[in-house]
Amino acid sequence: MRYQVTKRMLRGQPIDMAEVRSIQPLVGDVLITDQRCEQLGRNSKTAVVRGVNPIGPSSLPPLHEVVLSWMAPNGLVLSGLEVEDGRLYAQSWWCRPVE
Fold it and tell me: Is the model's pTM score more than 0.85?
């Protein structure tokens, strides 16, 4: 399903909501699958965003150990762990449907 996806954290720290609203979202298909996470040393429920070309790379790192944190008719928030510079940080994605 296609969403406008906006990151809500930077290196595990929340971004101010006014700033989150001003960030240009990535538009793409949100896919959740079971994938290997080397940092965790095991498989993990993982969310990825794929753009127009489903084979191409996403400009957002995968979200590991993903859970649905919040959902309403106008969108949802996925939370999990993001790998940045070899370290795991808390991350949330604000996902709004493309109209």
Answer: yes
Contacts 24+ apart (CB under 8 A), 90-93: 90/9, 90/12, 91/7, 91/8, 91/9, 91/12, 91/63, 92/7, 92/8, 92/9, 93/5, 93/6, 93/7, 93/8, 93/30, 93/47, 93/49, 93/60, 93/63
DSSP label of 15? P
pLDDT tens-place string over residues 13-65: 999 999 998 988 889 999 999 999 999 999 999 999 987 555 555 678 999 99
What CATH number has the domain bearing residue 44?
2.30.29
Number of domains in the chain: 1
Q: How many residues does the chain have?
A: 99
Q: Which residue has the tokens 């979202």?
A: 25
Question: Burial, 69: exposed, middle or buried (Cβ in 10 Å; 0-12, 13-18, 19+)?
Answer: middle
